[in-house]
Amino acid sequence: MREPADVRTATELVDAEPVHDTERELIRLRRREHELSALFSSARELAELRDSDAVLARLVQRAHQMMGVDLAYLSEFDPVTHELRVRETSGSVSPSFQTLRVPPGRGLASVVVESRTAQWVADYSDYSTDRHERGIDDAVAAEGLVSLLGVPMLTSDDVLGVLFVGNRDRKDFSPDEVALLAALADHASVILQTTQTLRDLQDSEDASRRNLADLTAHLVERDRANTVHQELVQAVLAGGGFAPVADTLATALGRAVAVTDAQDRVIAAAGLPLSPGMLDLDDVTRAAITDSRRSGHCVLVASGGVGAVAALSAGSRHFGALILGDGDFELGAVDLRTVERAAQVAALLELQQEAASGADHRVRSELIADLLDDVPERRSDVERRARRLGIDLHELDSLLLLAVPGDQQTTAARALSRRLDDHALVGEYRGYVVAAHASGRQPLDADAVRRHVAGSIQQPVVAVVPRTAPDALTSAFTSAMRTARLIAALELSDLTASTDDFLPYSAIFDTDARALADFLRETIGLVRRYDAERNADLLGTLRAFVRNNASPTRTARALNFHTNTILQRLDRLDQVLGASWREDERMFRLSIAVRLDELREQLQAGR
Questions:
Q1: Contact assessment for residue 516 and residue 509, using Cβ atoms and an 8 Å cutoff
Q2: C-alpha to C-alpha distance for 231 and 70, rounded to whole angstroms
Q3: Where's the GAF domain (predicted)?
Q4: With CB atoms counted within 10 Å of each terminal CB, which end of the chain scores lower, N or C?
């Protein structure tokens, strides 16, 4: 007996239901197998990580393919700005979306970061309005996205970013899809952590390399400093002057070095050639030397080929500077201290030389004083002491006298000594600086010597040259001293004069400067006053009258005037000086005054 058709259909339906369930489970398991296979492939890529950007891009592509969505992208979290920046995309068509930055507190991504859990929305337009932001909305609209799912990429303490997938149609995401995307996000977290770890390791390695390089450079600097220190000590002990200091620094620091005196003149150099800026210091370099004097430190310079300077100072005294040129390497802190130490050594050498020079100066000053005093009983002792200094007194036939302010006489004597050879005798005597020298051995330009000494002490100097007098230095000094006193009385300075120019005035007005001033005022003072009040030139007529032996005719010819004009002027002189001015005694006095006054004007004009 056959079963009814409706009963058979129901039975078939009941038997088919388990089959369909089995088929669905089989599909799910196959999909799961595919997902696990993809996750394992991703894990292998992580284990073989070489290029983190490439692995991240591959992971985002897998998320795109495995999730069956229209778009997948990864946003990296910036812990400083709290922004989320799109780093990798797959399936994106909008350039603006590929460079999207999500501000803090905005968009679905911020919710994922704040909650540290997966978040999704079936329709982004229905999402909470307080989370919307125009830039995000424009980027989402440009991609045409409707539904979004995001899962956080986490470490134990921080959020590294968010992995997103999106559809251009409405979609409800299943728990399995959320779990799959979370697994991929974990892989992305590993990549980002590994990248950061590698970056930190690279930074640590770079820092270690820099520290090693700094330590190596410091050790090299220290070795240079030790070498320089040892050689500078030897330079001081050997008494070799400034040249070893310059040579030691130039060799150790690989650059030109110059030592200058207080007037910026180069007195020693090494590592030649010197740059133009080291030979002729500009304002920038001079200012740096002043700064070094004030601070006591080496000062870096970048001007005219000058790299650094260090002043040579001892207390308030300034002796000069070390000038360093440019080199192949930058001077480090130890190098700068080395230069400062060299400057201190150079200042010590200057003090050492000054002490030795001071002792020699005292010996020579005592010797020249005894020589010029010319005491017969001490002559043999003077000759013996001179021979000890290598000086032959019989060769000394010339004298030079310098009138210098008292506090500068020692400095002036040293400056004068540097212009003369060792066979000359320089010292201080009776308030003057005196040099006795052999004219045949060393011709002397007195005016050039005077200018050199004046430049050394930065004050005007008067030089007096007496006649060459073999075996008569004492009388030559007396004549020079009288001339110097007369020049001082005439208020002249900064000139070079011969004693012959002032004879016989120096014999008449030896030491009394006030008497000289009174004499000139009493003799021709009234004529000067008359000329000043009336803009006349009676003094010129008086001078010509004296020079022409009191002859009106010869005076008229000399001045190119008519004789009557000269006679009229002589009448005015009668009114000014009195009728007796042409008498013998008064005329003699007027002649001396006029000639002396005229000589003073000539010297002033010549100066």
A1: yes
A2: 79
A3: 51-202
A4: N
Please, are residues 369 and 326 in contact by the beta-carbon 8 Å criterion?
no
The 3-state secondary structure of 256-270 reads: CEEEEECCCCEEEEE
Between strands 496-498 and 462-465, the pairing is: parallel
520 CA to centre of own chain: 57
Q: What are phi and psi of 471, to 5 degrees?
A: 60, 20
- pLDDT tens for 396-436 read 889 999 999 888 888 898 888 888 888 888 888 888 999 99
Residue with tokens 């004789």: 563
- For residue 194, count CB atoms less than 10 angstroms from its CB and return exposed for 0-12, middle for 13-18, buried for 19 or more: middle
Please say whether the beta carbons of 126 and 40 come within 8 A: no
Only one residue has tokens 């003699």, namely 588
Q: In whole angstroms, what is the distance from residue 605 CA to residue 607 CA?
A: 5
Q: Quick one: which of 464, 475, 394, 467 has its CA closest to 432? A: 464
Share the mean pLDDT of the chain: 82
Please state at what angle helix 5-47 crosses helix 175-238, rounded to 10 degrees: 0
Distances (CA, A) of 433 to 129, 393, 436, 498: 101, 18, 10, 16
What's the pLDDT tens digit per position in 320-357?
A: 999 999 988 888 887 888 888 888 888 888 887 777 66
Structure tokens at 488: 């001082």
- Round to whole Å and give the CA distance between 292 and 510: 49
Nearest-CA neighbor of 37 among 57, 66, 74? 66
| Selection from 503, 493, 489, 505 nearest residue 462 by Cα | 493
Residue with tokens 């039975």: 11
The answer, as to whether pTM is greater than 0.70, is no
Q: List, in order, residues 6 or more apart from 83 with CB less than 8 Å away.
A: 77, 101, 102, 103, 104
Cβ-Cβ contacts under 8 Å for 260 (sequence gap 6 or more): 266, 267, 281, 320, 321, 323
**Alpha-carbon gap, residue 254 to 256, rounded angstroms:** 7
3-state secondary structure of 88: strand
On whether the CB atoms of residues 464 and 403 are closer than 8 A, the answer is yes
As a whole number of Å, the CA-based R_g of the chain is 52
Cis peptide before 504 (omega within 30 of 0): yes
